[in-house]
Specification:
Shape: globular
Helix content: 40-55%
Number of helices: 11
Strand order of the largest sheet: 1-2-3-4-5
Distance between the termini: 44 Å
Largest sheet: 5 strands, mixed
CATH topology of the largest domain: Hypothetical protein af1432
Structural class: alpha+beta
Number of domains: 2
Radius of gyration: 18 Å
Number of strands: 5
Strand content: 5-15%
Length: 259
C-alpha cells in the first residue's frame, strides 16, 4: 500500500494536470495573444513546459528535506497574492509576483537544488515573456534581501511556506528542520499597523529547537525586509508565544504572551 507521502505526490501530479487542463480549456476559445504581450499567470500555469518540469521533481523528492515541487509553488502563489492584496498592490503587479512565485523552484527538476535559482530564471526567460523584475525575483529568491517588491514578496513566501505538508521524510530526521512539521497553518495579517505572522501548531513544536535552526532566522529576515518596504513593523508568533530576533548574534528569543 502506498504511504501517505507517496499518495500526496500522486495527488500533486493530478492537481497539476487538472489545473493545466482547466486553463487550456479556458484559453481554447480566447483570441490569439499578441507576440509582444506579457505572459499572464494563467498562461504560465497552463503551460505544458511547467507541468513537465514539475513532474521531474518526483525523482529527487525524498532526497530533499523540504518539498520544492508543485504544491510548494502553489502555496507560494497563495501567499504572495494574499500579502499583495493586504497591501493593495495593482493587479498587474499581483499577476507578476504570482508568476515568479510559481516558477522560483522549477529549476530543481530532477537535478537538485544546487544552482536551481539560475536554472529557474533561465527557464522563465526561455519560455515566457516576462519583465526583468520577474526574472530577478525568480533568480534571487533564496536571498532574504532585495531591492524590489517582487523579490521581497517571493522570498517572503518561500520562507513562510513551512508546515507539516512540506517536510519530507529526510526533513523529519534533521534537527531543527523537523520542528516545522508541527506547524499546521500560518496566519498572515496586518494588525495595529504591523505585519503579523502566526504559526499555528499541533502543540508539540519545540520552540527552542526551531529557534536555534538557521532557517528560522531567514524567516525573520524575509519578514522584516518585506515589512520595512511598506514602512511598518512586524511580529511573529508560535501560537500565543511571540518570538523575537536578536540582531547582534543572530539568536532568536521567545516571550510568553498573547497576541
Amino acid at each position: 500500500m502506498p504511504n501517505e507521502r507517496s499518495e500526496m505526490r500522486h495527488i500533486e501530479r493530478n492537481e497539476a494536470k487538472r489545473w493545466s487542463e482547466n486553463m487550456r480549456s479556458e484559453r481554447s476559445g480566447a483570441a490569439k495573444i499578441c507576440p509582444n504581450e506579457r505572459t499572464s499567470f494563467k498562461e504560465v500555469l497552463a503551460s505544458d513546459f511547467v507541468i513537465k518540469e514539475f513532474a521531474k521533481y518526483d525523482a529527487v523528492h525524498e532526497q530533499d528535506i523540504a518539498c520544492h515541487g508543485f504544491s510548494h509553488a502553489l502555496n507560494c502563489v497563495e501567499i504572495v497574492e494574499k500579502v499583495a492584496r493586504l497591501f493593495e498592490l495593482e493587479d498587474e503587479m499581483i499577476d507578476d509576483v504570482k508568476i515568479a512565485a510559481l516558477l522560483h523552484d522549477i529549476g530543481v527538476g530532477d537535478i537538485g537544488k544546487l544552482n536551481h535559482d539560475v536554472r529557474s530564471a533561465e527557464f522563465a526567460r526561455k519560455h515566457f515573456r516576462l519583465s526583468e523584475e520577474v526574472i530577478d525575483a525568480i533568480r534571487f529568491h533564496d536571498q532574504t534581501g532585495g531591492d524590489s517588491i517582487q523579490k521581497k514578496l517571493v522570498s517572503f513566501a518561500d520562507k513562510l511556506d513551512v508546515n507539516k505538508n512540506r517536510i519530507t521524510k529526510s526533513g523529519l530526521n534533521k534537527i531543527g528542520h523537523r520542528q516545522y512539521s508541527h506547524i499546521m497553518d500560518t496566519e498572515i495579517l496586518i494588525k495595529d499597523g504591523l505585519l503579523v505572522i502566526v504559526f499555528k501548531t499541533d502543540g508539540k513544536l519545540n520552540i527552542q529547537e526551531m529557534m536555534d535552526y538557521p532557517f528560522t532566522y531567514m524567516i525573520f529576515e524575509a519578514t522584516q525586509n518585506l515589512a520595512s518596504h511598506f514602512g511598518i513593523g512586524y511580529k511573529l508568533f508560535v501560537d500565543e508565544k511571540e518570538i523575537k530576533k536578536v540582531v547582534d548574534n543572530k539568536k532568536i528569543i521567545h516571550n510568553e504572551g498573547t497576541r
